Amino acid sequence: MTVSPKLINGGIVTLDAAGTVLRVIALQYNPDTLTRSMQVQATDTGGTDRSEALRLKGPAVETVNLDTELDLTDALEHPGTNPGAGQVGLHPQLAALEGLINPTTATLSTNDMLARAGTLEIIPMQTPLTLFVWSRHRIVPVRITQLTITEEAFDAALNPIRAKVTLGMRILTVNDLGFDHPGGAIFLTYLRTAEQLADRSQGTLGQLGITAIG
């Protein structure tokens, strides 16, 4: 008998300031493609200072983009075990994603009261720490930069039952969060894990058709 490996899902986790998990959003289907783009943070001297040619100002600016799907077709075939699917469709899943980029109503109301009270300066609203989890090797703090939802099918009550989601994220580094921030520590663990994995991929000069450098 062949035993299939247990599949894990990628997803997003939000944490409060104390590091308590607020919400877990597991992707229903893992995307087939994950696009990662990295911009080098090099010292820009315009070629006038050769001593700076190999220097880095900080970690690369990394962005992640993915497309995923949400589908309630199977759940709707078994309404007895999935009552929510027939009542509200995909609204809860989509609302959880939208909550990643919107302030809460409580925060909006508080800021409105402060403004009415004549507060001179209102600090911009802070969101919970958001983590992108893509296996135990990739757990990184991120800022959501793009969220596009295409609703493709609806039930009789116009609840969405199938949708495509495009998600864009920018990984936050210690340059963004600082070394003392919980997210900064999580980023350092991510970077350290990448360094350890890189050590397992070591080629030889012979593979390049040479025996020495210089």
What's a concise summary of this model?
This protein has 214 residues and is α+β, with helices and mostly antiparallel strands. The protein contains six helices and seven strands. The mean pLDDT is 88.
Topology, pairings included?
Elements: E1 11-15, E2 21-26, E3 34-39, E4 61-71, H1 73-76, H2 83-88, H3 91-98, H4 105-116, E5 129-133, E6 139-154, E7 160-171, H5 174-177, H6 182-198
Antiparallel strand pairs: 1-2, 1-5, 3-4, 4-7, 5-6, 6-7
Describe, in plain words, how this protein is organized in 3D.
With 214 residues, this protein is α+β, with helices and mostly antiparallel strands. The protein has one domain (11-100, 127-196). The protein is built from six helices and seven strands. It has helices spanning 73-76, 83-88, 91-98, 105-116, 174-177, 182-198, and strands at 11-15, 21-26, 34-39, 61-71, 129-133, 139-154, 160-171. The protein has a seven-stranded antiparallel beta sheet. A hairpin with a 5-residue loop joins strand 5 and strand 6. The longest helix is centred in the last third of the chain and has 17 residues, at 182-198. 13% of the residues are buried.
**SSE order, one letter for each helix or strand:** EEEEHHHHEEEHH
Strand runs, count: 7
- Can you list the strand order of the major beta sheet? 2-1-5-6-7-4-3
Number of helices: 6
For the CA atoms, what is the radius of gyration? 23 Å
Give helix % range: 10-25%
C-alpha geometry? globular
Strand content: 25-35%
Given the helix and strand composition, which structural class is it?
A: alpha+beta
Strand count, sense and barrel status of the largest sheet are: 7 strands, antiparallel
Mean pLDDT comes to 88
- Termini separation: 56 Å
Total domain modules: 1
Low-confidence stretches: none
